[in-house]
Amino acid sequence: MDAPNTLADVLDRVQTDTQLTPRARQDMAWAIRHVGRALARNLADIPASPPILNNRLNAVAPAAAGISRNSWANARSRLRKSLHVTGCYIEPGRHKGELAPAWQDLLACIDEQWLRHGLSRFAHFASDNQWAPQEIDDSYFEAFLDVLENRSIARNPARTYRRACVNWNKAVREVPGWPQTEITIPCRDDGYTYGWEDFPAGLRQAVDAYFKARSGTDPFVDASLRPLAPPSIQGQRFQLRQFASAVVLRGAASCNELQDLPDLVQPGRVKAGLRFFYERNGQQFSSQLTQIANAVLGVARYLVQRGDIDQATFDAVHGAYKAVEYRPHGMAERNRERLRPFADPENVAKLLHLPDRLVAQRNRKHVTVRDAYRVRSALAIEILLVLPLRIRNLVQLRIDANIHRTQANGKGRTFIHIPGLEVKNGETLQVELPTRTAQLLDLYLTHYRPLLVRDNGDWLFPGQKGGHQHIAAFGTYLKNVIRRETGLAVHPHLFRHIAAKLYLRANPGQFEVVRHVLGHKRLKTTVDTYAEFDSHQAVEMYDKQILALREDLVGAAGDKGADHG
Q1: In a domain, 213, yes or no
Q2: CA separation for the pair 233, 521 (Å, rounded)
Q3: Residues in domain Tyr recombinase (predicted)?
């Protein structure tokens, strides 16, 4: 049987397959149509190709398509069966056949159920291909990856493969009798950055001294060196490490040759390091390249003021910075795409009501850790809605230091106060929380945060191992909650853009208010970033005027107007 070309072909074959029971035909047809609706495509336009289907299915947010998670899981499972019975070779999501005796015996050696389960899929795949356990090496796992990517409807083939490799190696180390060939574990990304420990101690000490001078804590440091807030110092420290790594990777110096900061800003090395990022971005300028060049320029300015480099060297570094300077107006295209759904009031309502929806899901009779996570997410999203903080400031909120009340009994007013030194642009933030937000805060602090605390710290969002939540991980967690509950792709920083979009839509031209809400130092920053929202509103107002004028002038030119149906 030839493989079907499109899902329309799959549906036709399923509906005419007399080998299937009527219920099976009905279930598979339902799944195929369900997938077509979720992808918003005609079935004849959807290739019956596992790799293409994988990419498209993984991009679907069930909530956005009006589908429950259980229904979507059932649809994917039945689609997999439909493809299999109509001639597509599809790796099953779950193997139901028996393992070969050698693989049965091997898995039986594993005590931990999670590890046994984690290796089960590969074991079945190997057993089906009649591979012996002692034969397994990288080439066998690569064949497994090929099937996952090209012959399966898997949610994340790369992650499934990596976990199988990790689990195999764990079994090699810990399970008696397991074959002793370790598998090469793929990198999570194309990381290139060396650790600071790979560079000489002199460079590390010079970097520490530089950022101490930039911290604003020493009143005798040259005033022309603008103090940097702690988040900026952390960001630039990483950018210098990226740059030093790029210099080494381009062959302009070895790690050991970068003994001090002057070694890092030699003009030839600066050009080589910046070219690394230029070429890595497809020979295009980018905000990342500009930021790294700016961090290097800051070091050069510091060194020339100290007399550690001459003016000609500084001028060369400054010239390199100007050559790659990239300051795009407006927002990145990806953010425009993510904001587009918020032109629809229904999507705005989904996000604005999400905190209440999450709180309503909790069990009111019994306080559980699961509900604590829900209420924590609700509070974090609520704060981002009323006070669009940067994710670092949100995660690092302390109950005693940053949350202030006018009355101890909880009946007064509640403020969030963040000193300028903790904010990226150095501007102090102090905002009163609306009553509903303060009530949600009290609910979380009184009933749910105690279930999440692992130490005596006063972090509003405590981490599992003490301290606060990991900044990037918590941001990803919130993004996933929003995606799961609403179908919208919203990362924490997008709340700042959403705030500007919603306010300017209702109040065209009021950039000064947006500047205060977002904590921008300069009005120009706000206008450059969000002027397009004002343009959108202007076009909408113009269109309304034209439509109104058209209605007023119906018949004036002997035309009664067209009926577009």
Answers
A1: yes
A2: 18
A3: 338-543
